[in-house]
Structure formats: C-alpha cells, structure tokens
Give the backbone structure.
Amino acid sequence: MILNTDVLIIGAGITGLNFALNLRDDLDIIVLAKNSLQECNSYLAQGGISVLRNENDYEAYIGDTLSAGGFKNKRQAVEILVKESRAAIKRLEQLEVPFNRDKNGELIYTREGAHSINRIVHCDDNTGEQLHKVLEKKVREKTNVKLIENCFFADLLASKNRCVGALAINEGKELNIIAKTTIIATGGIGGLFKNSTNFHSISGDGIAIAIKNNIKVEHLNYIQFHPTSFYEDIEDKRRLLISEAVRGEGGRLLNKEGSRFVNELLPRDKVTEAIIKEELKYKSNHVYLDISFLEKDFVLKRFPNIYKNCLERGIDITKEPIPVTPAQHYFMGGIKVDMYCRTSMENLYAAGEVSSTGLHGANRLASNSLLESLVFSNRAVEYINRTISPYSVIFKELIKKSDGDKDYYNNSLSIILQQEIKKVRGDIINELVAL
Ligand code: SIN
C-alpha cells in the first residue's frame, strides 16, 4: 500500500506530537506509533521540565548543564536550550498543561541532582504523562493529522542521500509512505538492556536504520544509568523509576548499614558510580532511598504515583526506605543533527532522544530531556513551516478545480510542476514525479 503525505513523523512521544501540533494546518501529516501512542518514554517522565528561572540564572543553568555533561557538551546547543526554555514553557501554559502552582497561581519549581537552584516545573510526579495527554488531545483535534498506531518503522525510502519517506509494517502489511519531509522521533535504546526504566519496545530502531542508510550518528557510548530504579527480582520487565525529584525534596541514599554514602544531588553518573561501589562492597544488589522522615501529607501530595506504585510492590514510602539500584535510562548520543534537527540526509530530520544535538555532553542534566525535545522540535517546526513546498495543497486544489477532467488536470499539473521546479533546484524533478 502506498500513502502520500507532506510530513511523515515516526514516533508519537512528546517530540512527535509537538511537531504534529505545530506544523502548518495546510500540510498533510502522518504520525506513526510503534505500539500505542502512550508507549513512549516521554510518557514515563516523572521529574519535570527544567527552565531558566530568570536572567540571573542564565550562566548558572548553562554551567550546571555543562558540568553534569562532563564539559563534553556542544555549547551552542546549551545556549539555545537555555535561551529558548521560557518560551517553550509559555507555549505549554497556553495549552493549559496542568503544572503545579502555589496559592497565588505561580509555578512551583523543584530541584534535582546537579542543579544549583530550583528550576524544574512539574505536574505532580508524572509530568510526561500529563503533558502527553494534553498534546494528544490537541493533535486529535487537527483534521490534517492522521495517527497510525501499531506501525513498525522498517526502513527509510531514500535515493542519493535524499529521503522520500519510509517503509513501515502496519499489522503485517507493508506501508510505503512517500513524504516531502520525514522526521525520526523514535526515542532511545532502553529496550536493548535487561535493566532499563524505558519501555522494552523502545529499542533503538531509528538509530539502527540511520546507520544502515549511512546517516551520520555520534557518541554511541554516551549512555546514562539512572541511580534509582526500584529494585525487584524480576525478569523481562521495565524497571520502575524512582524520580530524582525524591532526592531533590530531601530523600537520602542509605547503604545496608543504614548510613549515607554520597551527596544525593551530584550528577547522575557520579551517584550511580557511588551506588555500584556500595553494592559491590556489601555484595548486595541494591541500596535504599529513604523519604519516610518527611511529613506523610507532603509525600502523598508530592509523589502520589510513586507512592502508589511502590505500595503495589509492598513498600510504603511514608514508613520505610525504598530498595533501589541503577538502571539504563537515557541515551545522549544518536543521529547527529544541527540546530534545526536536520540530519546528514536531505529532507530528513531527527529530534528528541534519538537525535544528538550535542547538548547533553556525556551525561544529561536531570529534566533537560523534555525541554530539549520541545525547544529543538519548535525550532525545526519553524524551519519546516517556512521552507516546505506543500505539494499536497497544490494538488488538492487542482483536483477540485479540474472536477474530474483528466486532461485539464494533467495539463495544469505539468504547468504547476514546471513553475515549482523553477523555484527549487532542477534535480528535485524525480521526487516530484514520484509524488
Ligand atoms: C526523574 O524524574 O528522575 C527522571 C527525569 C529525567 O530523566 O530527567
């Protein structure tokens, strides 16, 4: 089966939905989800979204991101992220994303590891889920967007380093999707690991397909292990994340003897290293994260989902420490992109965890992932909206005008094509014919 579209978005996490929502209404857009729309890592994000608190925070936020990243970050990307962070949050406020607010209606900012101040906005302890729900609802209201679930991304359709769409498998059937612009937003690589906080189905498909098609990738060794996933002796299951915000609110890491052994707010790689050392020292497969000394009402209000999920596993976090151990969490490397998410293949973009903007360096600062997804997809949207030639719009108008008269349609089409070709490069003709 062959489908034509202006824009094909592969992946329906926050990145994919943010593209679908903000691309022009006169473009035909198809969004593919490997399984259900909700089976994406951004849906699992607990902590929140970092944002520049005020102009005085500018250097500090850049410094925290660089320091957490081991100074391997691309500074230009860090500056863009920080500068454009407030605008990204403003857009979400306009969409009525239910961020936690104080009595005066002001945003509440929390803290996580390696942040020098509180600068993380959040929706309880399931920010990703609440944000995804808002974006999904808005995208479903758009008549120019077609969502296809259970659709496996099998390969790109490309010729001479120019992408013209993708091959996908939908319920056992091949779908050839011809697209003017293709966006890979397939997420990270957690499914490749036995212990990961990611859905197992998020298994690096976009990166593998990029490598197969000689698209530039980078920093494949930059893999982040989150210090605190719930320890349980289970096979083949996603590990439950215990948000870094628990440590941000004062949670303490304890070893088998009940002693603290690390500053809980160091960057993730450092805390993970300290936990592994402690586990080896005590020949144990976990340490403990304790928040039981805080007011019960505060814990229940601040971490309702973590409370519920731990209780289901037999731990009451208001009364006892949580057994935790590191698990794979995030991939900082990926498909190399520029500051507009453009890959090394023409007409192909990558954004979100699958991409490498260079922003995170070797270790991502907590709560910079949803922000990266929003800021860089907003930039790419703006670029695509400005530069795409919406063939589908021209063709649709022509079909309407020709009113079933094939000769009129064909003659007009060739005139339009010639005009279009004059505007763009001559070597695009094959693509136009394919469309
Ligand atoms: C967390 O809540 O600890 C995860 C958020 C993130 O990965 O930044």
About this structure: The first strand starts at residue 2 and ends at 10. The chain has three domains: 2-222+332-387, 228-329, 392-434. Residues 75-94 form the longest helix (20 residues). Residues 217 and 335 are 4 Å apart (CA to CA).
